[in-house]
Amino acid sequence: MNGEFFELLADAGFRLKARMILISKYFDPAERIALFESLGIQHCETTVSSANQLLNEATEAAKRKGRSARFAVKVCSEYRYTCALTGYRCLTGDGATIVDAAHIEAWCTTQNDDPQNGLALSKNAHWMFDEGLWTVDENWRVIVNAKKFAEHGPESLNLSSYMGRQLQFDPSSKLRPRLDYLRRHCQRFALLQR
Predict the structure, then answer these.
(1) Predicted confidence (pLDDT) per residue in 123-161, tens digit
(2) Would the pTM count as exceeding 0.85?
(3) Which of 25, 67, 98, 125 falls 20 to 30 Å from 88 in CA-CA distance?
(4) At a CB cut-off of 8 Å and minimum separation 6, what does 138 contact?
């Protein structure tokens, strides 16, 4: 059993919501009354309405998860599982990869799943990009916002060592981010192009 699902089953509130959704969706009205009664759930139209609302929310959450997975597969595969910042690619035999599909313009504000609004980035590079610690100019050169952070570690791993470098695209990858998305990312974090 999936570990995350197993943890949800331990939550009484989750179990109650699941019961309400299953009963409201899969049983006719007469059976609903009996099932709600047998489970000690007060049956009324409000309960059915609440269950329908929960079902709608679960459906929307599933759609978002599917949308997110589609974007991730498209972006990571089109960039050939290569981090655009570091040029590093690591892909296991079972298909796990070191890169995430990063939105250039945040999905929460734009709902933009255009693959050109994405970059394949390693976990660290993705987090730093989302935090506005770095961005890219119109010539695919990295701009680092060194005033926004302090770092310590091997020089070759420091974000500051990427300043001015070109993004690293796999030679067989045809996908490239749109420049207007990159411009807006730059503006969002007040990283003026030099």
Answers:
(1) 999 999 999 999 999 899 999 999 999 999 998 889 999
(2) no
(3) 67
(4) 179, 182, 183, 193
